[in-house]
Structures are given as C-alpha cells and as structure tokens.
Amino acid sequence: MGWYLIHTKPRQEQRALENLVNQGYDCYLPLLATEKLQRAVLKVVQEPLFSRYLFIHLDTHQSSKSWTPIRSTQGVSRLVTFGSEPAKVESELIEALRSRIDQTNSTPERLFQPGERVQIRDGSFAGLEAIYQMPRGEDRAMVLIELLSKPVKLTLAPASLRKL
After folding, report:
1. 2-104 in CATH: which number?
2. Between β-strands 161-163 and 150-156, what pairing exists: parallel, antiparallel or unpaired?
3. How much is the mean pLDDT over the chain?
4. Which of 8, 16, 106, 138 sits a CA distance of 20 to 30 A from 151?
C-alpha cells in the first residue's frame, strides 16, 4: 500500500474526498482552521492545507486500469504523475501532517495578528492606517490610530478593516 497525490477541480476538494470515500478508497484531506470574514462576520472555517490536492491510499500493485474510476470521480481533476508514474508520497509525511494538523487545529489561525498594520475601509476614519491590537468579542476588533500625534484606541467591526 502507498499514498498518492490527487489534483482536484477548483474548490472541490471536499466533493472529491466524499466521492472517493463513498467508492471505498482511503483518503486524507488535511484541513486547517482559519478565521474568515463571511458576510461581514468573522467565522472559523476549515480550509484545505494544500489547495486543490488530497492524498489517496492505494495498493502499489494495481494496474493502470484501476486508476480509471479515480480519474472519473466528480471533483477529481487528475492523478498527479511524473511522466507515466503516479507521484508517490511517503507514509511518514502523511503521519507527520496528521499529527501537526491535530495540534494546530486546536487554535485557529487568526485573520488579523496583533501588531499588524491594517487600513480602515469605512466609517468616519475610512482610509486611515491603524495597528491591529486584539479581537473584542466575535463582532469587534480594537485598533490603534494616530490622532493628533497620539495613539488612540478604536473599536471597529472586523469587516471594516483590511490588511495592508
């Protein structure tokens, strides 16, 4: 048995994973918890660690005919190959990814990091640069702006900020 790499169609990693699992294949899609702005609200979402790729565990002695159901699966673009040989991935790498993802997903990656420079997009301070300080609940963020040569704390909705 060995791990191989599958290239999926854009934003269809989950679809490819579900369809391959339904066919009885052992697959792995490493997902990372990150904060995203969705409809002006910060949400924690699971995103693929490797966009458009997932791993599949297959018998190394399968003939080329057995790749056909994988290639024709909805969401799958192709099997990654080097020439005519499928790209093999070491089992140690898969195990390292699994353990690392398990550790990382306990705390999601934040959209804004403390000390990061941001720009205010709307409101009376639109266009001003600020320094992101910290989240204030689920729908607010605290930033520092320079006003009259003094740093002033300001609380805004995260949707009104953008990274510089």
Report:
1. 3.30.70.940
2. unpaired
3. 85
4. 138
Q: How far, CA to CA in Å, does 85 sit from each of 8, 31, 78, 125, 155?
A: 18, 27, 13, 57, 56
- Phi, psi (rounded to 5 degrees) for 68: -55, -45
Q: Higher model confidence: residue 141 or residue 95?
A: 95
What does the domain layout of the chain look like in residue ranges? 2-104, 117-163
Tokens linked to 104 = 């990382």
Rg, C-alpha atoms of the chain = 22
Handedness of CA 90, 29, 47, 43 (dihedral sign): negative
- What are the structure tokens assigned to 50, written together? 């490797």
Confidence grade of residue 32 (pLDDT, cut at 50, 70, 90): confident
CATH 2.30.30.30 correct for 117-163: yes
pTM of the model: 0.69
